[in-house]
Amino acid sequence: MEGIIAGMNPEGESRTGASPQTGRSVSTFWVRTDNPMSMVRVTDSDFRVCQIGFDTLLEIQLEAEQRGWATRWTSVDALRSQVKEGSVVLQSLMREEREGVVRAYRCLLLFSTMDDGDAGGVATIDLDPARYESLDRLDRDPIVRKALARMFSLAVGGISMVSKK
User: Cα–Cα distance between 66 and 104 in angstroms, integer?
Assistant: First the structure.
């Protein structure tokens, strides 16, 4: 996946397609302005970077399906068709709050893709706050937290192999 582009759209749509410049896959999502979601910053106490197993990702997907959340794969089969079994790295991106209570966390997932050899993909998924709090953190050290956040930022923006001159 080449990258994720954020913008605003009143319908809160998202779409995936090929970049006209590179022909690689690009995901675009919009955040509704009336949506009660706020960004989770690296300095926030609820910012996390976690490594999860494939089975945990499947459980998160099923929970999202049961809750009717839109930010998930369409099905477990769709997830299995795109995500290679193995560990997945998750980073908090946004939190949805209603009346001062966090309803869900929207997280970035970095994973190995099924159809691209050693290539990786980045996608988003919503998590229940209790599940989110239960995940083992990789980012307890502030320096590690910043480095991992930077890696996710680069992955979301698109990473390409570069030939040195």
Answer: 14
What b-and-e string marks burial along 72-109, b requiring 16 or more CB atoms within 10 Å of the CB? Answer: bbeeeeebbeebbeeebbbbbbbbbeeeeebbbbbbbb
Q: Say what the pTM is.
A: 0.77
Domain residues of the chain, as ranges? 1-35, 36-157
What is the edge-to-edge ordering of all strands in the sheet holding 3-7?
3-7, 25-30, 14-18
Q: If you ran DSSP here, which 8-state letter would residue 132 be given?
A: H
What digits encode the pLDDT tens for the residues 107-137? 999 999 998 678 889 999 999 999 999 999 9
Is-contact 72 61, C-beta < 8 A? yes
CA distance 97 to 152: 24
In a 3-state reduction of DSSP, which class is residue 149?
Answer: helix
Taking the C-alpha atoms of residue 47 and residue 142, their distance in angstroms, rounded to an integer, is 11
